[in-house]
Automatic annotation (TrEMBL):
PANTHER family: ABC TRANSPORTER ATP-BINDING PROTEIN, BRANCHED-CHAIN AMINO ACID TRANSPORT SYSTEM PERMEASE PROTEIN LIVH. The chain crosses the membrane at residues 15-35, 42-61, 95-114, 135-153, 165-185, 192-216, 236-257, 269-295, 307-328. It comes from Meridianimarinicoccus roseus. Belongs to the binding-protein-dependent transport system permease family. LivHM subfamily. This is Branched-chain amino acid ABC transporter permease. One of its GO terms (biological process) is amino acid transport. Keywords: Amino-acid transport, Cell membrane, Membrane, Transmembrane, Transmembrane helix, Transport. GO terms for cellular component: plasma membrane. It is found in: Cell membrane. Its main location: membrane. The lineage of its organism: Bacteria, Pseudomonadati, Pseudomonadota, Alphaproteobacteria, Rhodobacterales.
Length: 343
């Protein structure tokens, strides 16, 4: 039982990332009809917002520390972050420690700008083009973005720690009355899971209960009729593209302490997340979210030592096997809508 619970927990953080990226992909496809293969790059850009904020907050200057000496007896030169000199060691150190959550404030305007620039500068020219053209151009854009990140940040992963308050692990075993230490789960992964739930809930509430969201949902169902009512549906869809970019960016920010950011992390998640979208059903927001969590947990179970020993390599292909089975039995996916991607 403890092994099963642990695998479920292990699948939640990756499933959360899949669900958030797939949610953004589905938002863009459902509103604009565009298959955006650059969406994983937006996830990567969010992670590097956290890296950038960490570097900004740790900018320092050199001072001589008379209380410390080297092996020759000379005073040591130490680097003092500007934030600590401005706000003091306690407050300044706390600000640096909370660099990842603080970077959420930076990521929102950055991702809005990137989303608007992508949609207005490139994507809008491919609305009426075949999906193959959309995939090629957005895939090319993703490669350009990751090469830019590689140029400025290098090819190696960059450790981006979570705040010290979440550095430990939670003992689920003791909480559930099992042996203490039998189920240990990092605090930050729990934070990421609940953060993902909050973002997903916020997006669904926005679409369901606001006038803007209702118009967008109407436009997803019948774009021409909404346009005939005098509503600028194109402008609203552009805003939805920016919102999808923000969702992907925030997911990347909070995932940075779990998986050290690197220039190809967006591409790693994109392919799997696109499979998640297909399994959930193209254009189905609930399907994308549900499939993200389910496939994340299945991948976790497939990574168990006992399973890998019996079926070597199954953890690398389990998601694709599930996708094949689902599409053979339900070609539209779990919750796909009729007519989507069937032309």
């Amino acid at each position: 039982m403890d092994a099963l619970l642990l695998q479920v927990l292990n699948g939640l953080d990756k499933g959360s990332a899949y669900a958030l990226i797939a949610l953004g992909l589905t938002l863009i496809f459902g509103t604009l009809g565009v298959v955006n293969f650059a969406h994983g790059a937006l996830f990567m850009l969010g992670a590097f917002c956290a890296v950038t904020m960490q570097r900004i907050l740790t900018l320092s200057y050199e001072v001589v520390d008379e209380t410390r000496t080297d092996f020759l007896g000379n005073p040591l030169k130490v680097d003092v972050p500007y934030v600590q000199s401005w706000f003091g060691d306690s407050v300044g150190g706390g600000i640096i420690d909370w660099a990842v959550p603080i970077s959420l404030l930076m990521a929102v305007p950055v991702m809005i700008f990137v989303g608007f620039a992508m949609e207005r500068g490139l994507i809008k020219h491919f609305y009426k083009r075949p999906h193959a053209d959309q995939i090629l151009v957005t895939f090319g854009l993703a490669i350009v973005l990751q090469e830019i990140i590689k140029y400025f940040y290098g090819a190696n992963p960059i450790p981006t720690p979570a705040p010290d308050a979440f550095a430990g692990s939670f003992d689920f075993g003791a909480m559930l009355g099992m042996q203490a230490g039998s189920i240990i789960y990092p605090y930050w992964r729990l934070v990421y899971f609940f953060f993902a739930l909050a973002i997903i809930g916020g997006v669904f509430a926005f679409l369901q209960f606001t006038t803007f969201g209702m118009v967008v949902r109407a436009g997803m169902a019948d774009r021409e009729t909404v346009g005939l009512l005098g509503i600028d549906i194109d402008r609203r869809f552009t805003i939805m593209f920016a919102i999808a970019a923000v969702v992907a960016g925030l997911a990347g920010v909070m995932y940075a302490p779990i998986n050290s950011p690197n220039y190809h992390m967006g591409m790693d998640f994109l392919v799997l997340s696109f499979v998640v979208v297909v399994v959930g059903g193209m254009g189905s927001l609930p399907g994308a979210v549900a499939a993200g969590f389910v496939l994340g947990i299945l991948e976790s179970f497939a990574s168990m030592a006992e399973v890998v020993a019996f079926l070597p390599g199954i953890n690398q292909i389990i998601i694709y096997l599930v996708a094949i089975i689902i599409l053979l039995t339900r070609p539209r996916g779990l919750m796909g809508r009729k007519g989507v991607m069937e032309d």
